[in-house]
Amino acid sequence: MSATSSRPRRAARVLTVALAAAACAVTVAGPAGAVVNGRNATESYPFMASIPETVPGAGSVEGVCGASLIHPRWVLTAAHCVDTRLVQPDGIVRIGSDRRTSGGTVRTIERTVTHPGYALGEAAGANKDDLALVRLDRAAPQTPIRLADRAVPGTPTRLLGFGTTTDTTDITKATFAKRLKQLDTRIGAVNECEPGRAGLARLCTVSPVPGAMACIGDSGGPQLQRGRGGRWELVGATSGDGDGDPTCSTGPGLYSSVPAYADWIRSTIRAYGD
Hints:
The chain is mostly beta strands. The protein has one domain (3-271): Thrombin, subunit H, CATH 2.40.10. It has helices at 3-14, 258-271, and strands at 39-40, 48-55, 61-71, 74-77, 88-89, 92-95, 105-114, 119-123, 126-128, 132-136, 146-147, 156-161, 181-187, 202-206, 222-226, 232-241, 253-257. β3 and β4 form a beta hairpin. Mean pLDDT is 86; it is low at 1-34.
């Protein structure tokens, strides 16, 4: 199948497969909550953001991507979440709510800056440089999350998202969570993901819970780890699958490594005058 003919299908799956460390994002098979087989958020995450959008290649079905407030006027998400060949963002970002469609602070998208190296499905089926920065029309009052300095295999992490609670590769059959979900995971070794997918810039993320990982609707969302003083810091952003199986819950996830892109993130924000 050509890259062009496969794009609508990829849009449905890639669109928001989020929340998982190291190569996929949390979506688990089975009962339970968004981040498939995740559970309702157990605490407040004021930096958590969501980006509503539609998917033209799937009949303009409504979708969602995750994001993280990293500066009063900037959120970080996956590049494929703002790729207009795949999706059409609704033009707003909701910040600091544990509800997908209400609460928190709503800001208008002023501009998006996609990593210059971004490419869809280039490396063994994994997205390359899958990060984008979204500038808000004005500052949000919530406290931004700190960027992690390093990502070490074996480190416990947590995924957040509003993605589908049922494991599916068809976005038209996704059941997006109304409430924010979380899943405890760990940064895996490179070889725990399919060869060629994980690396310094793409974290392989593994769930200790069978059949649980980020999925459609989780893309761009945060992978967290504990930093100084036990505070959450941002170590990854949901990007895609860590193996060749199209279902989300059968293997690890891929996350764009925030430490690997920290220089680009900071320099981009500075270039636009904060």
